[in-house]
Amino acid sequence: MQKFDRIEMCMGTGFRFQGQSDLESAQVDFALQVACGILHEADNIFSLYKPESALSQLAAGKTSVAQCPPVVSEIWDACEIWEQKTDGWFSAFTPEHTFDPSGLVKTWAAKRAAESLISAGVTDFTLNAGGDVYISEAASAQFDWRVGLSKPVSVASDEAGALAVIDLKGTGYQAVATSGSAERGNHIWNPKAPGREFATELLQVTVIARDLVEADVWATAAFAEGLASMARIDAIDHLEAICILADGQIAATPGFASLMAR
Amino acid sequence: MRTSTKSAIGAITLGVIGLSYNLGEQAVIVSHSFSAPPLAPSTSPEVPAQPSASASASALPSQGTSAGTTTTKPNPSVPSPSATTAQTQAPVVNPPTATSKTIAGPVIQSGYGTVQVKVTKVGSTITDITMLKANATDGRATAFPYLVQYAITANGSNFANLSGATYTTNAFKQSLDAALAKF
User: Which among A140, A131, A111, A126 is positioned nearest to A212, based on CA atoms?
Assistant: First the structure.
C-alpha cells in the first residue's frame, strides 16, 4: 500500500491529494501528474488573471465562445444550469456583465481531476481544493471522512480554529465546500441586488453535498442569498448546510446536526 | 421539512455555539508551549477560563505578505521538553518505563506563511506540541493555538481536512505528521 500526499499550487490556491493506493508508486505519480495537469489546463483556459487565457480574451471581446476551446461553452452551459437550480443566486455574470465562471471552475476542475485519478485506479483519497473538500467513495481511513469546518474569523480575532468537525463516513456525502468573507474578504456579489453589491448578510456558509461542484455552487449561492438559503437548501434532498450570520449567530439545516463528529 | 428549520436553528445554535465557545476559550488559553491536560481525549475538557491570555495574538507574527522566516518569540523560561513532559506525565496513565522523546517536524511553506512544529511524546501519547515557526498572514496565525490544542487532545491531527482554511491547517498537519513519522 503506497501512501501519497501531493500539494499542487494552481489557480492561486492549493490542491492537496492525500490517499493510498495498491498501484506501483510510479503509476500513482503518473496518475497524480495527469490529475494536476487537468487543474493547470483549466487554469490556463479560465483564469481571468492571465491575459492570454481564453476567458480573458472573451471578456475583452477579442474572441467568441465559438472560437474558444469547447470546454468554455460546456462551463457556460453549466453556469446557466446552476443559475436556474439556485433560482438565480449563483450567477457567473459579473456586475459588469462579463462572464466570470471562477466560482465554478475550481471545483469543476477538481472534480475532473478526482475522476481522472479514480479512472487510473487510484480510488482511496481525499482532495482538498483550496478549502473545498472531496472524499472519494472508496476512502478507507475513518480519519479521511472527518472534516473540520473553519471558524469565520476576522483578521483581528483570537478565536480562530475549527468551528466544528463533521464525520461523513457512511452518510453518502462526499463533498464539503465553504464560502466566506474571512479568508478572501468580500468577493461574492449579490446577483439580485440592484447594483450587484457584495453580499454581507453571512460571514460564512458551509454546504455538504454528494458532489463537489454542487457543494461549491450552493455555498456561493447561499452566501449571496443569506439566511433564507438555509430553508432553500433544506428543501433539496442530499444537501445540508450551516451558516454564520454577520452578528455571529449560527443557523443550519435540520439534518446538519447528525453529521457532526462524535 | 422547510418549516422545521427555525426550531432546528435554535437547537443547533445552542449546541454549536456552546462548542464554538469552548473551542474559543481553549484557543485563548493555549499558548505556544502547551502541555496536554490529563483528560479523556473524547470529552470536552473542563479547562478553567483565564482572562485574556496574551500569548496567542502577540506571539504569532501575522504581518507582512511574504512567507518570511519570522520565528516565534523565544521562550527561554520554558523548561526543556523533557522536563515539561515529566511534570505532565504524572496524571497520565503511562507505564513508568515510558520515556519522553521530542522531534521537530520540517519547516513547511504554506500559501500564507511558514509553519514548523516540535512534538513531544511519552510512549504513544503526544504530550506537547510547540510551534517553532508560526507565521501566517491575514489573521491565519490565530488558528495555530487551536490547532495545537486539537492535536494534543486528539492524540494526532484527527481530521483529514479543514474546509475554509486550506493553507494553515495543511502546513501545520504536514509538519506535525512528518514529526510523528520520525518516532
Answer: A111
Please name the residue of chain B whose CA is at the shortest distance from the CA of residue A132.
Answer: B163
- 3-class state of residue A109 by DSSP: helix
Structure confidence by residue, pLDDT tens digits, A90-118: 999 887 778 889 889 999 999 999 999 99
pLDDT of residue B110: 52
Rg of chain B in Å (alpha carbons): 17
pLDDT averaged over every residue in chain A: 88
CB distance B122 to B100 below 8 Å: yes
Assess contact for A206 and A243: CB atoms under 8 A: yes
CB pairs under 8 A between A and B: 167
Q: Reduced to 3 states, what is the DSSP secondary structure of residue A68?
A: coil
Domains of chain A: 2-259 (3.10.520.10)
d(CA B76, CA B99): 23
A17 chain-B contacts, CB cut-off 8 A: none
A144 and B160 in contact by Cβ < 8 A? yes
Query: Cβ contacts (< 8 Å) between A163 and chain B: which residues?
Result: 16, 19-20, 23
Chain mean pLDDT for chain B: 47
Say if residues B126 and B150 touch (Cβ distance below 8 Å).
no
Distance from CA of A42 to the nearest CA of B (A): 20
Is the complex ipTM higher than 0.90?
A: no
- Average pLDDT rounded to a whole number, residues B120-147: 56
pLDDT at A59 over 60: yes
Q: What is the largest CA-CA distance in chain A?
A: 56
Q: How is the beta sheet containing A202-209 ordered, strand by strand?
A: A2-10, A13-21, A124-129, A132-135, A175-180, A202-209, A239-245, A250-252
Contact status, residue B23 vs residue A162, Cβ threshold 8 Å: yes
Contact B114, B106 (CB under 8 A): no
Mean pLDDT, residues A220-225 taken together: 93
